[in-house]
Design brief:
The complex is a heterodimer. By secondary structure, chain A is mostly helical. Chain A has 24 helices and 2 strands. Classes of the chains: A mainly alpha, B mainly alpha. The interface between A and B is large, with 55 and 43 residues.
Chain lengths: ~625, ~120
């Protein structure tokens, strides 16, 4: 009993600690020297990290439920609001704490003139993400969602004197806010039907009734907000704008965990509230359709970029698509695969954004063509980027490769034979794009770009107002390198820890157990022990990973030496150019266009999920 | 029923305004119009005919009062108004910065972020 009580204090604590630390810094930050500011902020984030780790251990047997104010349910009825911690939720919170800690350590030397605001915003951002991951109440989820949103917009536009940054922040804010209104409308519809807001209470109220138009619309609308945050197509347009212009350590947090929390929100709400109320088929089709569109679009657009940060943003979008596909299979294997993949991806993508920040600082640009051959070929930076590029493509035995393999297995197991092909293609495209950029910048591979190309369209976006730091650093400071190495090491080693797959499998089984969730939260019934399958590396997974890594190297080589290819090989790619140009035109940077696409996306999802249910 | 229609109408009409907007200040106001739609919807959900405001005195127990409208949706609305105020302030600040750096607040003429 004592351990449960102890653990149930932890869930609110991980939300409160960053808020209190942030408030403290805001109050006394002005009178503190910079090193003390950094120390307090890092200590606050690291405390959350440690508490998350303790909580992760405490939930190994099931879930930890905390009713705020002690409003525990009586006979299944309650007016209380709960935080429910389970392995997947706490894992997401832990990921957020790791990334925020690394971003703070990295910013130590990055923003030498940053005032306390930057630290405070990162800490509050952490509170928002943690609360979103642990909340068991739909409206609370939305409030935490808006908290992380508001801070994310402010962080994106942090360099207020930069042209692109303020525009990116504004686009992000308008599109995300509109998504949040959609979610709020959905929540209102559910409340009007059931009079409940808690996930477990909603689940009980909706179960056993035939799904009607209101339930379907509520599901789609609630998911819209989460999907906007997840950067799923066609709600993704803000992502590249925001991540190309936000400070690099902030980008690492955005793409490592914030967008992943969007996918988490969809999965959480589906399995706790709607799993019994909606038929599986239409929901699966809806999620798979969104996932495939997102993955393909992200992969293609990543290859088409020459701005390194924009390239990484599209690589994130592509991977979100893959996570959505894995979750969309609606099996616990898929969730386990997606969670593993997301953890590995956070390490790789996060460290790549931090490396891009170092490149930007040293060479005053992140434009691949402009920087052609300007990097030092033998530097640590170069090899770290090569390793990250290979890992992104799925090089075994690292985390991304393991997650990708688990997702592919889950897809084939459920009869989606096309799944592995798509996963191999998309990871080869994104990894290849990273390798190509690295090859160009650091090794001077490929043809020397013409003067016209150097001054090309992306020039504006990496112009002088892209400078994120004050002076130019002559060598990479140890604090920046430590942050990069911690993220990489984390992302890589999870693939090599025996038993990691099994732990994820158990976490996922708990996650998708709708009845177990409701029983424990509302009726205090202890969860049954699980006997998860021991999934880890499989031969097929390793082979597919090697294959996608090889393809990625191929994609990079083709990208670098495109003009030397015989015309017969070039023509199929050249003939695709109009399609690519069309896609580029869609990403217009115009917030009105983005909103129009959002509405199109909602209507399409309503049709895909709604029509078969109501027919 | 009318409240739901008005709420939905405001939500979509605000969105339409953002799509068609030629001025970012106008876009931000349209966003607020959209959000007002969600408030109308929420308050409409809690409405009961003949009920009074959900304010209880400390002395008399609640049963001495007549029916009241649902306080939960009102609390939700209030929470969201607070969020909206923050976001609107932030958006207007960004708009001022866009005007300073780009020299225009017409989204059609912002050409920084493409492709």
């Amino acid at each position: 009993m004592n351990t449960t009580t102890g653990a149930s204090v932890l869930a609110p604590l991980v939300v409160v600690v960053p808020i209190v630390t942030g408030a403290l810094l805001l109050a006394i930050g002005r009178s503190l020297p910079r090193w003390a500011l950094d120390a307090v902020a890092v200590a606050g984030a690291a405390t959350v990290l440690a508490l998350d780790a303790v909580l992760l251990d405490a939930v190994s047997g099931g879930r930890v439920v905390t009713w705020s104010g002690g409003w525990t349910p009586h006979a299944g009825a309650t007016v209380g609001i709960a935080l429910v911690a389970d392995r997947i939720g706490v894992g997401a919170a832990l990921l957020a704490a790791v990334l925020i800690t690394c971003a703070l350590i990295y910013s130590w030397r990055y923003y030498e003139d940053a005032e306390a605001h930057f630290h405070v915003m990162l800490l509050l951002f952490l509170a928002g993400m943690t609360g979103f991951a642990l909340s068991a109440d739909l409206f609370d989820m939305l409030v935490f969602f808006e908290l992380m949103g508001a801070l994310a917009y402010a962080l994106t536009g942090f360099r207020v004197e930069a042209k692109a940054a303020v525009q990116g922040g504004l686009n992000f804010a308008i599109v995300n806010s509109f998504g949040a209104f959609m979610t709020l409308t959905g929540i209102g519809m559910l409340y009007s039907r059931t009079g409940q807001l808690g996930l477990a209470q909603l689940s009980e109220a909706l179960a056993g009734h035939r799904a009607d138009a209101l339930v379907v619309a509520a599901f789609v609308l609630v998911c819209t907000g989460w999907l906007v945050k997840a950067a799923a197509a066609p709600f993704h347009f803000w992502t590249a704008d925001a991540e190309a212009v936000a400070p690099s350590p902030v980008c690492a947090v955005f793409s490592g965990v914030m967008v992943v929390l969007g996918v988490y929100g969809v999965a959480r709400v589906y399995w706790t509230v709607f799993a019994d109320a909606l038929p599986e088929g239409p929901v699966r089709r809806g999620l798979l359709a969104v996932g495939i569109l997102t993955a393909v679009l992200g992969g293609v657009m990543a290859v088409a970029q020459r701005n390194l940060k924009r390239l990484l943003a599209y690589a994130t979008i592509a991977h979100v698509g893959l996570f959505l596909i894995a979750v969309g299979v609606l099996s616990s294997d898929g969730v386990a695969g997606a969670a593993t993949y997301a953890a590995g991806h956070a390490g790789v993508e996060g460290s790549l954004f931090l490396l891009a920040g170092i490149v930007l600082n040293r060479y005053r640009s992140v434009d691949e063509l402009e920087l052609h051959g300007r990097g030092q070929p033998g530097s640590v930076l170069a090899w770290l980027m090569v390793l990250d590029g290979l890992c992104m493509a799925g090089l075994p035995p690292f985390g991304v490769g393991l997650g990708k393999g688990m997702c592919e297995d889950a897809l084939s197991h459920e009869g989606f034979g096309w799944g592995p092909y798509l996963f191999v293609a998309v990871s080869a495209l994104t990894g290849g794009a990273v390798l190509r950029a690295t090859g160009r910048i650091f090794f001077g591979f490929g043809a020397e770009p013409t003067e016209e190309e150097r001054q090309g369209s992306a020039r504006q976006m990496s112009g002088e107002d892209d400078e994120e730091t004050e002076g130019r650093l002559h060598r990479v400071p140890a604090s920046m390198l430590i942050a990069v190495l911690v993220l990489m090491a984390g992302g890589l080693t999870i693939g090599t820890v025996p038993g990691f797959g099994r732990v994820m499998e158990a976490a996922a089984e708990r996650f998708v157990d709708t009845h177990g969730y409701v029983d424990q939260v509302l009726h205090g019934i202890a969860p049954v022990p699980l006997h998860p399958a021991d999934t880890w590396w499989t031969l097929a997974g390793v082979l597919l990973d090697v294959l996608s890594t090889a393809f990625a190297i191929g994609v990079a080589a083709v990208g670098l030496h495109f003009r030397r290819l015989p015309g017969r090989l070039r023509s199929p790619v050249t003939s695709l150019r109009p399609v690519l140009d069309g896609l580029r035109t869609l990403h217009s940077g115009h917030v009105g266009d983005y909103l129009a696409w959002l509405v199109v996306g909602v209507s399409a999802l309503l049709a895909i999920v709604g029509l078969p249910v109501l027919a | 029923m009318l409240a739901y229609l008005v709420g939905g109408w405001l939500l979509l009409f605000g969105g339409w305004g953002i799509v068609r907007s030629r001025n970012l200040v106008h876009s931000v106001v349209c966003l607020s119009v959209s959000q007002a739609g969600t408030y109308v919807l929420l308050v409409g959900i809690g409405y009961q005919k003949g009920a009074t405001a959900p304010v209880f005195g400390a002395v008399a127990p609640p049963r001495h009062y007549g029916p009241v409208v649902d306080p939960v949706v009102q609390a939700m609305t209030l929470t969201d108004i607070v969020v909206a105020a923050t976001v609107t302030a932030l958006l207007l600040a960004l708009t001022i910065q866009i005007d300073k750096t780009h020299g225009t607040v017409d989204p059609d003429r912002l050409r920084e972020l493409r492709g």
